Structure formats: C-alpha cells, structure tokens
Amino acid sequence: MLSGVTTDPELDGLAAVDLSDTPGLDRFYGVIPAGGVGTRLWPLSRAAAPKFLHDLTGSGQTLIRATYDRLAALAGDRVMVVTGEAHEGAVREQLPDLASEDTVLEPEPKDSAAAIGLAAAILFERDPETIMGSFAADQVIGPVEEFQEAVAEAVATAATGKIVTIGIKPTHPATGFGYIRQGEALTVKGAPHAKDVAAFVEKPAEDVAKEYVASGEYLWNAGMFVAPVSLMLHHLAINEPELHAGVVEIAKAWGTPAQAETMARVWPGLKKTAVDYAVAEPAAAAGDVAVIPGGFTWDDVGDFAAIARLNPAKRASGITVIGETPRVYSSKASGVVVTDTARVIALIGVEDIVVVDTPDALLVTTTEHAQSVKQAVESLKAHGDDDVL
Amino acid sequence: MLSGVTTDPELDGLAAVDLSDTPGLDRFYGVIPAGGVGTRLWPLSRAAAPKFLHDLTGSGQTLIRATYDRLAALAGDRVMVVTGEAHEGAVREQLPDLASEDTVLEPEPKDSAAAIGLAAAILFERDPETIMGSFAADQVIGPVEEFQEAVAEAVATAATGKIVTIGIKPTHPATGFGYIRQGEALTVKGAPHAKDVAAFVEKPAEDVAKEYVASGEYLWNAGMFVAPVSLMLHHLAINEPELHAGVVEIAKAWGTPAQAETMARVWPGLKKTAVDYAVAEPAAAAGDVAVIPGGFTWDDVGDFAAIARLNPAKRASGITVIGETPRVYSSKASGVVVTDTARVIALIGVEDIVVVDTPDALLVTTTEHAQSVKQAVESLKAHGDDDVL
C-alpha cells in the first residue's frame, strides 16, 4: 500500500521523508473521528456545519480534508471516517476517495469511546493484525512532515504491542488541555523518541500548568492514539464490557445485509464516554501505553482566539479576515472577521474584536472572551433559538 | 387653520397649551428641510434611506413624521417639505396629508440656503405676509409642549419684523455645534423670553465651549429659523443675489405648467451654501435677528452615541436594542444594537459597543468612535463600495 504512496509524484511533497520501512506501517489504518459541533466557534461552526467542514486557516482546505491528506500520505486509501449521519453528504464531497465501507455513520453522537471502539472492531474483523491511528478531523497541524515522522514512530512502537499516543510539546501553560507525564525511554526500532507514559493528567489549574511546562516532563494530550486494534479492544473489553460487546456486534454485521439494522438497534444503547477513560488511562495504569513527543505545532482550533493565532493578520490593519468574498473596512481596529456573507463589514475603533458574520446569526466578541461563546450557545438553546444552532 | 387643530381631539395631547392667540400664528407656515444622508449613522442611514426616514428613538415614529406632528399642532396642514427627488415616495408614505404643492423635490442636494430660500420664495408668492418656520426633519425634541411654546414666541417675535432662531440651552460643552451669543432682552407681546442675537459663533474648541456654557450667555444653534418670508428673501437678495434670483424664478413658476422645466433648468446652477452664511449671520450683523431660548431637550442624532443617549437601555443587560424583530443575546456587554434584519445577534464581553446590522452592511464600533463613521463611509466611497452607501 505504502509503495503506491511514495511513488505517487503528487504526494512526493507530502512524504518527503521515506518512512516506508517503518515497522508495522503495512498494517496501518487511519481513523478520523469527525464528531463535535465546535460550539465555541458558533455561529460559524454549528450542528449543520461543524468545525471540521470549514477552512479555518485560510489554507483553501477544510480541516477534515487536510486531516485526510496528512494520513493518506502514510496510509494510502486505508482511511476510515466516523461521523454523524447528517454529515454524510458533506464528508463524501470533501473526501471523494473515501470507501463506502470506511464511512461509519453514527445515528447519534456517543462520544469517542464508541466511535473509536467501533472503528477498532470493524478493522479487527477485517484483519486482527491491523494497527489503527486515530486523529480528530478538526485539528490544525504543521509542518506535515514532522507529524508524519511522529506517526511513523508511533506505528513502530504500536507494532511492539503498545497503545501509543502522540503528545505535543507545550508552548504555553494551557489550562484547556489534559497533559501526559512522560516516563522512561523505550527501546524501539524505528522509534528513537518513544517513552513510557507515566500518567495521563486532567486539565490543570494555571499554576499547575506552569509547573508542568517548566518541568519539561509533560506533553499536551492531543487525543491521538496509534495502537493495535486488538489491544484497543482488549482494554475496552476490560473497562467497558457492554460498550465492547456492542461495537463488536455492530462490527460483525458490518458490510453484511444486517449492517443497517444492527447499527440502528445497538448504537443508541451504547454508553457515552471518552476513549481516554475507557481505554487510555486504564491501559496506562497497566503499563501498556507509550508516547511519542510531537515537535510539530498543533492547535485544536478551540475558539476564535485560536483562529486569530492560526491566521496572522496579513493586512496592515491588523484584522485577520476569513471568508470567500470578504469586503472588510477597518480603522483603528484589530482582531478577526469570519464572514459567510457578501456584506460590507466596517470595524472602527475596536481592538481584539471577533466578528463572525453568517446569514442568520452574528457574533461580536473579543479574543479574550472567545471561550464564553459556548455559554452564549447554551443560552440561545435555553431560549428556544435552536434554528441558528 | 389653527382652530381646526386645537379643536381636533386627537391633537389635544400635543397642544395642551392654547397658543391660538399668538400674534402672527395665523400667518405661520412650517417648513421641513429633509436633506442630508446622516453619514455618521451609516449603514442604517444612507442615501436611499436617510436618517429622517428612521425611528431612531424607539417612539414608533420616523423622525420626519414626529417633526411634522410637532409643527402640525401649530400650523395645521400648512407644512411644506423640501427633500430629494429620491425620497418622494417615502416622504409621501410618512406624510399622507402633505399637499402636492407643499412637496418640494430637489433634483440634487444644494445645502440649506437654496432649500429654505426656495420655500420662502414659494410661500412669498402665495402670500407675502407669511411667517415661515424652518425645522430640520431629523431632530429629536421633547417635551413637545415646550418646543411649541418656544415656536409660538418665535412667531410672535417674527411678526415684529425679525428673523428668529430658537437656541438650545446647552447641557454640556459640545464642540459639534455652533453657538449663539444672546444680546439684550426684547419687549415683544407674546414672547417674554425674546432676546437680540449678539452673534452667531462657529463650532468652538472644547475649552472655549466650556467658557460659553459657564457664562450662561450662549445657546446651541439648532438651525431653527422663524421669520417673515419677505425678510428672509430680503437678506438672501443682499448676500446671495444669484441664489435669490434663482429661487424666485422657480417660485414664480411653482404650481404652473412651467414648474418642472424651471426647476430642472435653474436648480442645478444654484450655489451650495448654508442658510447660516447666506442669511442668518449677515442678518444678525444688521441687527435683524432675535433668539428664543428653548428649554426643551434637543438632539440632532448626529451619531450612534446619540442613539445610545436617546434610548436608555431598558434591559438589565445594558444593551439598547433598536429594531423591529430583535433577537439579541448579550453577556458582559453594553452599548447599542440597531438591527434591520431578523438575525440572531450575540454580544459577549464588549463594552460600549455599537453594532448596526443591515442586510448588506454591518458596522461594529464603539460609542467613543461614533463620529468616525463618516470617515468609514468616505473610505468605502473611495474604494467603489457605493452599493452600500
């Protein structure tokens, strides 16, 4: 599979480093969970058009397309997407090469353990030796070569029988992410940076986050997991046996005439829980988790302040503009404008402003208050303004 | 005419004080110049929908309708409007009782001397004894009874052969208005507060404005003029003889088959100048101008900060909302939202913000920068964005 990738001249730019002799890479399968509305990016991101379907970096690509391309350079066409039924059309439009059997549609959202567990179970049924690599659809990563080198190390480490996470070297004491405490270095062929995971730790308070960063021992938990599907299922079976039984039942029906009926019957009853709790943390406690420190930049584009960070203002005005046909006038203003309309937008005397202009909803806030957008959405929901959510 | 007003039960509330024996009131004719786009209120106010066609106070009335009602209580149906050709339909819709011969349509804007001069000339042709009272269409005044009492005093004073302005007692050292220095008290029957005008003075610097206010001798020049049409024309003829000849030529054709041709031929050549320079200031120098101090509140709604002032926030949130169907959510925000759309607007963490939401243009600024909106409009014009101006 991989040789097809590295000899494809169109992909040469993406796979400048030859990773084709990475142990386990011939068994690698990319998985992209594409759930989550991205409430803090309302009204741009919303139920009908979640974050991963937007180009939030001005790259010309949606986030899910960029995620797919990053993985395809390593996995070829062996990529599976798990997303909501409502997004089937948009996802197929973004990823025309995605196979039908690799398009897993959730009848309702069930959090990451069910999504990743079902992917693992389906892949296990096809080939129990498969190594999966799960990467969320709505993250921004660069440079892509460094990411791919880290994934290759993770695959090589997973091939030794580990669940491997890729942790991000923290650039500031973020309080919005969980952290990974690194343990002893491992000796793995093809993975010179692999280490044991001593522990996963919850989102810290700011002073704790500062200690973490200062110590050099901690990495951000970016929710990236590379692991033998058998090991994922093993830990899921131990910690969430009902959830495990459910995804295995669906996986056994996958690709058979019973697929739709089984999915519709079993999925709604599955427990909502995160893969961190259901697999990663107990597996770490059992000594089964390793980590590759990723030196690439990583952003989960959690709010509009992130969009400002990821899109440095190119105009002298200090305004970052994201939109197809922006007509923005600004004077003594700075911040971010995201526009989904052809309206003229004039900003005067507003600093660090965030303006998100869509046909049916308008948000005006500041980068400082970007995290509060979630409460606004909750309030709108409480007031029955669901039409714009 | 007036008796018809004071006996109209619907107008009793407006004319609570019986002013019907005011000397000269039987010769009174209201004139409403309705020009000016109100650039500082863009994108609400614009060429196609200027300030006077909006309800900026949440009263349920447009500014021009409120202006008409204030005058009609004194002038009955003797009210003339001078406005742009483009606004004919909107003005007639607002003022269905306005007579055709009292609807003066300018083929192009020519500033106040031409507009008020033509009104004076037309009224002079009808009845040379007429006393006109000119009041801009886009001002907010209250209480209406105090305004009407001041106008009645102005009419009584004008009947003695004066051009009479109504000056506003300043409430703060405004630098955006011209001032009127009051002279000696006059003895006029029916006008106990009439005084000579010592001088009109230009918009002052702030320290000068403070001295003006502290002295108690100065009033704001609100551009209100009550005068015998013959005296207005007399001073116009002395100071702007060509402009005078032009408006007289149009006035002589008014109501005849030659009206349209004469207007189209003569108007475009008229000089653009303000009635202050063409009539009021030279007339004051000649000792022909009196002033009535108006104790009513007055606002020319010059910018969105004025809208905030005139519409105290009624909600605990601190946001003033103007619009037909507002759907505004706010958190830690204060300021003004003017909306012409049915969009949901969410404001988070923005203080003294001004958001003006129209179908094709959006303004985000602060009350502090409200005066800068004019530059934005000029810049948009320079960039060819005329479609939204």
Description:
- Two copies of one chain form a homodimer.
- By secondary structure, the first copy, chain A, is an alpha/beta fold.
- Chain A has two domains: 2-299, Spore Coat Polysaccharide Biosynthesis Protein SpsA, Chain A (Alpha-Beta Complex), CATH 3.90.550.10; 312-388, no CATH class.
- Helices cover 32% and strands 24% of the residues of chain A.
- Chain A is built from twelve helices and 17 strands.
- Chain A has helices at residues 2-6, 63-75, 88-94, 111-126, 144-158, 206-215, 229-239, 241-253, 259-266, 275-285, 304-310, 373-382; strands spanning 28-34, 79-84, 103-106, 131-134, 140-142, 163-168, 179-185, 195-201, 218-228, 289-294, 297-299, 319-323, 327-331, 335-339, 344-348, 353-357, 361-366.
- In chain A, the strands form four sheets. The first copy, chain A, has a five-stranded mixed beta barrel with strand order 6-9-7-8-10, surrounded by four helices. Chain A has a four-stranded mixed sheet with strand order 12-14-16-17, covered by helices on one side.
- In chain A, helix 8 (241-253) runs antiparallel to helix 9 (259-266).
- The longest helix of chain A is centred in the first third of the chain and has 16 residues, at 111-126.
- Chain A is globular, with a radius of gyration of 21 Å.
- The two termini of chain A are 42 Å apart.
- Residues 1-15 of chain A have low confidence and may be disordered.
- The A-B interface holds A 42-43, 327, 329, 331-332, 342-350, 353, 355, 357, 359-366, 368-369, 372-373, 375-376, 379-380, 383, 385, 388 and B 42-43, 327, 329, 331-332, 342-350, 353, 355, 357, 359-366, 368-369, 372-373, 375-376, 379-380, 383, 385, 388.
- Strand 17 of chain A pairs parallel with strand 15 (344-348) of chain B.
- Chains A, B: Keywords: Nucleotidyltransferase, Transferase.
- Chains A, B: Residues 334-380 form the MannoseP isomerase/GMP-like beta-helix domain.
- Chains A, B: InterPro entries: ManC/GMP-like_b-helix, Mannose-6P_isomerase_type2, NTP_transferase_dom, Nucleotide-diphossugar_trans.
- Chains A, B: Residues 30-312 form the Nucleotidyl transferase domain.
- Chains A, B: One of its GO terms (molecular function) is mannose-1-phosphate guanylyltransferase (GTP) activity.
